[in-house]
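User: Show me sequence and structure for the first protein, then do the same for the second.

Assistant: Starting with the first protein.
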Amino acid sequence: MASSALSISHQFLCIYSSSETNNQSSKPQLPLTRIPNRSLSLRTLLKSTSSKNNSTSLQSSPEDPKPIIKPKRPDPTPPPELSLFDSPLFINLRRLRDESVKYDGIVVDILSIALPAALALAADPITSLVDTAFIGHLGSVELAAVGVSASVFNLVSKLFNVPLLNITTSFVAEEQALVLGKAKDESQLIGDDFQGEKQSKKFLPSASTSLALAASIGIAEAVALFLGSGVLMDAMGISTHSPMRIPAENFLSLRAFGAPPIVIALAAQGTFRGFKDTKTPLYAICAGNLLNAVLDGILIFIYNLGIGGAAVATVISEYLIAAILLWKLNTQILLMPTNIDAKRIIRYLKSGGLLIGRTLAVVVTTTLSTSMAAREGPVPMAGHQICIQVWLAVSLLTDALALAGQTLLASGYSQKNYEEARQVVYKVLQLGLVMGIGLAGILFIGFKPFSGLFSTDTEVLAIAWSGILFVAGSQPFNAIAFVLDGLYYGVSDFEFAAYSMVLVGLVSSGFILLAAPAFGLAGIWAGLFLFMALRVIAGIWRLGTKSGPWKLVWDQRELET
């Protein structure tokens, strides 16, 4: 008992001595040898902790009964079950609804990127119409031959070139944002080993790697298209006895020489997009397309080169576009890599492989719909073709909005500015929905007179008009689906983007196979509508689950709130 009291006194004296040293430095400390002869009161303890209760004794009265704490009995009522509307998916949807669309800095950035990009996207279809008008004057055989060759060339471009464009945009935007972030504290004039003007250029490994891959892919495509033009015509069902065979094969062989500049120009466009600069690609594309239109008239009619002249004009314009973009890009960054980074190349190839699979799923679904429509006969097929072309052309306008979301999201995400990333997600989805509703209204009003530009056949137009619910009604879903694609790419969520598209494509293709024989074009259009709706559902679900790269974006929100 005595030893216990001694221990307690020793401990409290240390506390008392520490307090008294701070408050009353003039008083000497008591030596430890005097501790056993002194008793400690509650006043001594409370001097070091609180000055409010300095008259209370440390020794509690043994007569004071300790309060009896009764354990709480568990509530027999089970907690209410969470409904589907309390899931993360619907929570994020309510957040999206509650976020007001304000004309703030983020919206300005979105529109400043999206508007020039939309004009650039619209330039290519316009140029195709000009080419079609020139070639159409040569005859129906030449027009059909060019159509087949262009389909093969565009399929190859869509499979390999567009994935490289999207990947380059994301990777360059991430790297550019990190460079600009570091430049706030220190100079980022990279290149101690370079002299003169090179010292003012930035070295972005993602951009130089993309350009090197683009050159390699372009050369490979050119060789394959030139040497395999006959095999590709066989695959398209153009026999050697068809009058289209020779002109189609010649046109594709000449167009093959334009594959390298096309891929390089797309890689350069992706780099400019990563810089949030969509005006420079617009100027280059307009200059090239203008030259193409001028050369078409000269080579086709003045020099009588026929569709060969059209192919040469297109190839020359493609080299001009690539040259302008590379010239402008060379003033900003070092184009040639100082060394070959194998890990970076593997990253490009892995992401590109995923997006190629995603593109294949889209191509298979849309091609299947066209194939099933062709089985309905020439008149239904013609009506379907009008609907599908308008549907795709109008939907691609929202691709510019997706590009803006991709670039801004990649920039904010790479800098770990998750609040900005969330605002980009909200704003671009809201603007996409508004654009989709606006396009739907325009098409509901103007589709009937607009479709008259494609045909004068009353039966074909009647079938096309019957698809107005598909063409116009699906635009809000199309807009959101395209925007979600851009958001996937912005956080490099390529894996989910690919696998979800393959699953959606399988479901939609199965629906088309079952519905087309029973309902005709209505079943096909319903399948394409389902295709876009499932893409939207998959994208919103991905955002709601807060998994993958989205975990950082949404978890930070939970910490802040």
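Switching to the second protein now.
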Amino acid sequence: MPTKLESPVKTQMAVGLVSGLLNGECRKSTRGILARRRRVFVQTEAGCVLGMELERGDNADTVKRKLQLALNVPTDHSSLTFGDRILNNDLSAIRNHSPLLLARNVMHRSSSTPCLSPTGKNLQQWDRSGPLEILGCSKYFASIDELIKDIVVAIKKGIEPIPVHSGLGGAYYFRNIRGESVAIVKPTDEEPYAPNNPKGFVGTSLGQPGLKHSVRVGETGFREVAAYLLDLNHYANVPPTVLVKVTHSIFNVNYGVNGDKIQQKKKVCKIASLQQFIPHDFDAGDYGNSRFPVACVHRIGILDVRIFNTDRHAGNILVKMPDGEFGQVELIPIDHGLCLPEHLEDPYFEWIHWPQASVPFSEDELEYIKNLDPIHDSEMLKMELPMIREACLRVLILSTIFLQEAAAFGLCLAEIGEMMSREFGSKEEKPSELEVVCLETRRMIEDLNMSNFVAEEDNDAFLSDIECDKAGLDHPPHIPSFLFKQFSYPFGTEGANSHYLLPKLDESLVEGNVDLGTRAVRAERVINQPNWYKPVSKLSMSLKKLNVDETGQLQRMGTLPGIRRSANDQLPTSTSFVKLADMCEEEWVLFLEKFRELLYPAFSKRRSTTIGQRRRLGTSCTF
């Protein structure tokens, strides 16, 4: 009788390459046959990693059958996922060295810790790879190749990694032949709440919501890499970071739901982020910020805004003291695993109250911000990290546009951070100023969709059924009006008299004929409407009352985002005011256009608030 899909984790031994398991002639393969294959690494929800080669005729079912034979477990009720996509017959989008996730379907999840049971003898013999290799081939990772080689030499010489005892997740310092720490490795299955977390924070399987509901367990690793890739020209000083497949006995594997450790250490294969270790003297929490250069603070802040960092605390800003008397303090930002959330969160910016953040941007900084290209950056991440989710890319685009418009308006870094942050002290969490603009933009899109539908319905009224038959057209679909009441944007109309919270700018405002004070008053009047939003629990739209035909009609008419089966369906509703991934492409383009239009009154309000307060300390300080 086959082992249950989620059996106890002696079973969790990550095993080596299983290509050839079904084909005894694998070792006799010619170079031409091997050239047609792609190597992938399939990770189970429990963190077990299996390397295999995809052949030209393989599809998701054949891959799952190979996994079932290798692990002796049923995979019928599991799905093979790659970022947003649930893989079926076509695996053409899977690139060489891509990490895939084998996840159970929602209906077949149990409350126990998931694990798989590899069987067979000496499966490690099939692993023809080394102890450490980079996932993906990119020009961006060329600078870290020598570092990887040094680590591999040290591993083969018996130089053991050192576990990092701080933090909530598993991390390890890997060393060179001289015993010096040169990299920090963070396995994705040892993150907080992940099944193999070594510090007791075990709670769910890979792919489920983690510490932040907008960042799934096991997906902080590629975010670390994304932050490095987005740090164009090493502007903010993010250390080189790559995604790797690494095999070593130092890693942690737990038994079952209690997180008990396996006593006998064996070599296990993990997918992890690897970041170059930068020698430093302090972190920002141990050293006062008064000596931090304005430019360094600004550069880190610009990066944090772009990537919507939800975890920029003092401990992940390293401080390197100058060598000489006239040198300058160097800041190194690390730990970017909680950036690029799937929906807007409450970010945390340690620098928001530092005086340097209140100093206006320099001309060089404004030029750098102006030249950012979020669409190009999004496409680059798709190429380099194809597993990244579309929702994350939309957050990147939105936050970069917000940064560019705010900087061009004249706001400083602190003001930008404040507009992105939610208020504290109230009983009910309120959206940030950025989220307010996004909510109103969504309201505008909904109203435009309604207007378009009414116009199309009026036009269709002139075509009778007979005329449709003569023209060879389908009869115009009739969609009951009550359906649209269910899909009106769920943020309500209170406090705005059923009109936009941020009304359209009148001609005089667009032409610049209204002074700053007048603009600010108008903006404040529309933004500060009391109780304009409903509680968070009422924000998500429900599709349960629609039958299949009605849903299909609404999708075709463009009044609803494209509804398709994807890995996103597995993400439970979380506390959020603004989600971006539920818009179809046309709506997203329109959203960005209207979003830009509505930013101006919000910036005016923020500026008037700043002027009304006492003069900012940073504007009168010299650093």
